[in-house]
Write a sequence for this structure.
């Protein structure tokens, strides 16, 4: 029967040396990316989500570009047919594609980022920009970019930084109402007023939408056929709901946005000492009387 091999004796005079760790592991532990590509990814992530002066300037520039693009989206029915419409359309498509690519590159979990509903919405908007003639009937969806900006929070960061976070809830209600107004206007223009192309047809569609949302109903402009009546019904129902939400946001008691460390509730009364959901003691910053 073979004897087990004996372990070699340790020499007490010989110093113990540890095996050198892998280079990639050392770089990861120390927080130093191994390549320039990884450094660029970290830097881009800090620009999109950081709070440094450079990141804030980048975020404000991106917000300005986004709002300008949304203004172009709202005016698309008026601009369509001009000689420079396609050039503007493809330029906006390039900017949107670059922004989506940068966000994907900076994302920590790319699969999770790609599964977000906002990303699917941006892809649909991008397709309408790349194929404006073939997908013209869906171009009214472009204004949903305003809603997606609202959901990502980029619109509200300046309010929070400047101490106006208490009006964020009201501002969100305003943005939701405006988004629906221009979305409905684009839909009505595309499917009912396309023959009156240009500014006149768009103003008629906007006029009809506003009178329907406010339930004024002057009756001088109506949508023909049963589909027109169904469209008016949907606009009135959703419009009234959004108006009620806006009124609630304006007249409800003011809330302070502070995350409870225990249950993560974010809205509290200005003079709250305990969280109304879990009873945790809160330390809400207060400037004093």
């Amino acid at each position: 029967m073979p004897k087990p091999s004996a372990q070699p004796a340790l020499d007490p005079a010989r110093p113990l040396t540890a095996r050198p760790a892998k280079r990639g592991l050392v770089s990861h532990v120390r927080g130093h990316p191994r390549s320039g590509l990884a450094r660029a990814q970290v830097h881009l992530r800090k620009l999109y989500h950081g709070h440094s002066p450079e990141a804030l300037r980048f975020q404000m520039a991106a917000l300005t570009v986004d709002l300008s693009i949304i203004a172009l989206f709202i005016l698309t029915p008026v601009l369509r047919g001009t000689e420079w419409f396609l050039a503007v359309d493809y330029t906006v498509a390039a900017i949107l594609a670059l922004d989506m690519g940068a966000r994907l590159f900076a994302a920590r979990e790319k699969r999770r980022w790609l599964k977000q509903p906002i990303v699917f919405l941006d892809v649909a908007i991008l397709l309408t920009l790349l194929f404006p003639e073939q997908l013209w009937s869906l171009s009214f969806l472009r204004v949903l970019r305003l809603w997606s900006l609202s959901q990502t929070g980029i619109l509200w960061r300046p309010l929070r930084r400047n101490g106006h976070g208490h009006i964020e809830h009201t501002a969100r209600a305003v943005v939701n109402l405006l988004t629906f107004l221009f979305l409905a206007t684009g839909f009505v223009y595309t499917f009912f007023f396309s023959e009156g192309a240009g500014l006149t047809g768009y103003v008629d569609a906007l006029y009809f939408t506003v009178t329907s949302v406010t339930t004024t109903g002057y009756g001088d402009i109506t949508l023909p056929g049963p589909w027109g009546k169904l469209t008016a019904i949907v606009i009135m129902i959703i419009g009234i709901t959004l108006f009620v939400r806006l009124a609630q946001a304006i007249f409800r008691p003011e809330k302070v946005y502070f995350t409870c460390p225990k249950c993560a509730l974010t809205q509290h009364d200005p003079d709250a000492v305990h969280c109304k959901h879990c009873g945790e003691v809160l330390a809400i910053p207060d400037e004093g009387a």
Q: What stands out?
A: The mean pLDDT is 79.
